[in-house]
Specification:
Chain B: Pfam families: GTP-eEF1A_C (PF22594), GTP_EFTU (PF00009), GTP_EFTU_D2 (PF03144). Chain B: InterPro entries: CysN_GTP-bd (IPR041757), CysN_II (IPR044138), CysN_NoDQ_III (IPR044139), EFTu-like_2 (IPR004161), G_TR_CS (IPR031157), GTP-eEF1A_C (IPR054696), P-loop_NTPase (IPR027417), Small_GTP-bd (IPR005225). The complex is a heterodimer of chains A (301) and B (416). Chain A is α/β, with parallel strands linked by helices and 301 residues long. Chain A is built from eight helices and ten strands. With 416 residues, chain B is an alpha+beta fold. Chain B folds into three domains: 206 residues, P-loop containing nucleotide triphosphate hydrolases (Rossmann fold, 3-Layer(aba) Sandwich); 88 residues, Beta Barrel (Elongation Factor Tu (Ef-tu), domain 3), CATH 2.40.30; 106 residues, Translation factors (Elongation Factor Tu (Ef-tu), domain 3, Beta Barrel), CATH 2.40.30. Chain B has a seven-stranded antiparallel beta sheet with strand order 7-15-11-12-14-9-8, with no helix packed on it. In chain B, strands 2-3-1-4-5-6 form a six-stranded mixed beta sheet, sandwiched between helices. Classes of the chains: A alpha/beta (301), B alpha+beta (416). At the A-B interface, helix 1 and helix 2 of A face helix 2, helix 3, strand 2, helix 4 and strand 9 of B.
Chain lengths: 301, 416
């Protein structure tokens, strides 16, 4: 026995690479769900480390709500070009046009909930048996209990009471036809770990993560980017602010924080000192105490 | 900075969730909006202070019933270390969850209620810690505030525990008197117990040594995936991708591939774009060999001078994890790292009464039962004994009918 240890980022990285390679080894048709956010960008970096100089043994899949920040889409397309990997896009607009989902109405309308249907349809259409995602256990208390290999039934549902025990570093990916597994390689990373890794690896990110000037309105005490996707009325006062985003979701449900942090070092300092958790800037989690648990049971990530 | 993974054993009644909540709270690991949600919750302590236990209750049923059902993972960090906590339920019906949490932990915290001392549950939790071979154990004697912070109470419980633990194979035991509710000796050393000369719990967690098995005798790398770009430029590239389970590999080491028994020499070690001369336990690497031999997922590369055990008949401790009892007439799948094979339970040697530690004869294995069995595998396994090398001495059983993980195996002996 030696007292030598890996540095924490090396250990987290090695664990994530191990999980990604297990996905490649255990499944017929995996996919990597790519949102354009920093967590899925980190997954892509880890996939490079797991499989290069070979190709990824899975395509990237993006569920496009149509309400994205343009900066995210630009980043996605440049990244796919650089990697030379395959991208599949599922459009929420198509689900709406096909009548599979109905667009929400009212001031707080968002397409966040609708994307679950598009996701499940995309999984079914391509026959994906494993979907790799960038969720982390520190984000939310339902996620804190989810396995790294999380089995979903044919309706995409998560059943917290039927979770398989996950022992040592052995992952059981056996499933019945119609089921699929959501795999979370960065389960054990915190928000700060992700940022420290991005800095260490000198990874690029969509520009909205860094402080920039933007027209904003205030909704439910949160700062939102003014956009055609927000149902705005005369009560909404547009102000010009210097902001950045801590997570990248839809423009209709991702709140900005006022910030001068335009360099990664400043962001890490800001997060270290922060008093609001990352998902605190997500209106979709604020609905009820069990909001995330309910959405996961319905097939959400 | 490195990572310490620990798990907590105890029930809500022992103040387990409060202890974790206290660690998070006093290290400033709870953020403003989480704190706000906490304050808005209806659950308060009798004196009106925030019930810190809420921080670790995840699922709706757990909040409703005020219990922990499943393993919840929590994270916090100090300047010295990153911590991963597996918060596991303490009740006997959740033994499998505790086994799960313990399987990856470097350290176990066992809570003892100062008012009750060593009870049946303490014995059970300590047994599980020894069964899973967790390296360090901290016995937190909690609720010292309700016993007048008495040194005598602490000493009596400590002595009783040591007597009980003599029957177990525990490696490193530390006793700390605490009050999770009041915060004594959790993050800061308590002024209420000047007789206690040891460190606070957090101090201990920050400084305890975390060891990885780097013994060359146990150089093992299960192959997860073969990287073959098959492009013109990389026509002959053939890399064996995997995570080193234990030990270390160096360039020019002679290695054997099991089960085939073919051997070759390490030509190159890759970690993405780096090509180090050596790689050690815990690292995910790609190995290249000098000879072109047939290797695929499920094979394991080992140092040729130190071969593992090889057998189809193995004596193992089994923890049963499924609602459906074990059936020795059917074939299960056995997953040993990247190797999947079929397996039958040949014989049940005994079951352990985990409250009294007595061995009992039995013909059946039900949910949460633990005991010794003999298994027969379809393919020969290349393994180490769990006590010598946990990472290569453990496996899971999968029921092919449901695909559920139904058993945890720890290899104890080779059957001649």
């Amino acid at each position: 026995m030696s007292k030598y240890n890996l540095d924490y980022l090396d250990e987290l990285e090695a664990e994530a690479i191990h999980i990604l390679r297990e996905v490649a080894g255990q499944f017929e048709k995996p996919a990597l769900l790519f949102s354009g956010g920093k967590d899925s960008i980190t997954l892509v970096r880890l996939a490079e480390k797991a499989f290069r100089p070979g190709k990824f043994p899975f395509p990237l899949v993006h569920i496009d709500t149509g309400h994205n920040f343009q900066e995210t889409i630009d980043y996605r397309d440049e990244m796919v070009e650089r990697l030379g990997e395959k991208l599949i896009v599922g459009y929420v607009q198509e689900s709406i046009d096909n009548g599979k989902v109905i667009e929400q109405k009212g001031k707080n309308a968002s397409r966040n909930a609708l994307q679950t249907v598009t996701l499940l349809d995309t999984i079914a259409q391509h026959g994906f048996d494993a979907c790799i995602g960038g969720a982390r256990r520190d984000e939310e208390k339902a996620r804190a209990k989810e396995r790294i290999f999380s089995v979903r039934d044919e309706f995409g549902q998560w059943d917290p009471k039927r979770q398989r025990p996950e022992l040592w570093n052995i992952y059981n990916g056996r499933i019945h036809k119609g089921e699929n597994v959501r795999v979370f390689p960065i389960s054990n990373w915190t928000e700060l770990d992700v940022w420290n890794y991005i800095r260490r690896e000198k990874m690029s990110l969509p520009s909205i993560y860094f402080a920039h000037n933007r027209d904003c309105i205030t909704r439910n005490g949160q700062l939102m980017a003014a956009s055609p996707f927000l149902n705005m009325d005369e009560a909404d006062v547009v102000t010009h602010r210097k902001v950045r985003f801590r997570t990248v979701g839809d423009m209709s449900c991702t709140a900005a924080v006022e910030s001068d942090a335009d360099q990664i070092d400043d962001i890490i300092e800001e997060i270290s000192a922060s008093k609001i958790s990352e998902r605190g800037a997500r209106l979709d989690d604020k609905v009820s105490e069990a909001a995330m648990e309910d959405r996961k049971k319905g097939g959400y990530f | 900075m490195n990572i310490l993974k620990f798990f907590t054993a105890g029930s809500v009644d022992d103040g387990k969730s409060t202890l974790i909540g206290r660690l998070l709270y006093d290290t400033g690991s709870i953020l403003a909006d989480q704190l706000e949600a906490l304050q808005q919750s209806n659950r308060k302590n009798d004196d009106g202070t925030i019930d810190l236990a809420i921080l670790t209750d995840g699922l709706r049923a757990e909040r409703e019933q005020g219990i922990t059902i499943d393993v919840a993972y929590k994270y916090f960090q100090t300047e010295k270390r990153k911590f991963i906590i597996a918060d596991t339920p303490g009740h006997i019906q959740y033994t499998r969850n505790m086994v799960t949490g313990a399987s990856t932990a470097n350290l176990a915290i066992i809570l003892v209620d100062a008012r009750n001392g060593v009870v049946e549950q303490t014995i059970r939790h300590s047994y599980l810690v020894s069964l899973l071979g967790v390296s360090h154990v901290v016995i937190c004697i909690n609720k010292m505030d309700m016993e007048g912070y008495s040194e005598e109470v602490f000493n009596t419980i400590t002595e009783n525990y040591k007597k009980m633990a003599a029957k177990l194979n525990l490696q490193d035991i530390t006793f700390i008197p605490v009050s999770a509710l009041k915060g004594d000796n959790i993050v800061h050393t308590s002024e209420n117990m000047p007789w206690y000369k040891g460190t606070s719990l957090l101090d201990f967690l920050e400084t305890v040594e975390v060891t990885v098995n780097q013994d060359l005798h146990y150089a093992r790398m299960p192959v997860q995936w073969v990287i073959r770009p098959q492009t013109e430029a990389l026509h002959d590239y053939r890399g064996y991708a995997g995570r080193i389970l234990s030990g270390a590999f160096k360039v020019n080491d002679k290695v054997t591939v099991l089960p085939s028994g073919n051997s070759s020499v390490i030509d190159r070690i890759e970690i993405f774009e780096q090509t180090p001369q050596e790689a050690t336990a815990g690292q995910s690497v790609t190995l290249h060999l000098k000879d072109n031999i047939d290797i695929s997922r499920g094979d394991v590369l080992v140092n040729s001078s130190y071969l593992p055990q090889r057998s189809q008949l193995i004596e193992a401790d089994l923890c049963w994890m499924d609602n459906k009892p074990m059936d020795d007439s059917i074939t299960y799948f056995l997953q040993h790292n990247s190797k999947l094979t079929k397996c039958k339970i040949r014989e049940i040697l005994h079951k352990v009464n985990i409250n009294t530690l007595e061995k009992e004869e039995t013909h059946e294995f039900k949910l949460n039962d633990i005991g010794r069995v003999v298994i027969k595998t379809a393919d020969e396994l290349a393994f180490d004994l769990y006590t010598e090398n946990k990472a290569n001495g453990s496996a899971i059983l999968i029921d092919g009918r449901t695909n559920l993980t139904v058993g945890a195996l720890m290899f104890r002996a080779i059957v001649e």
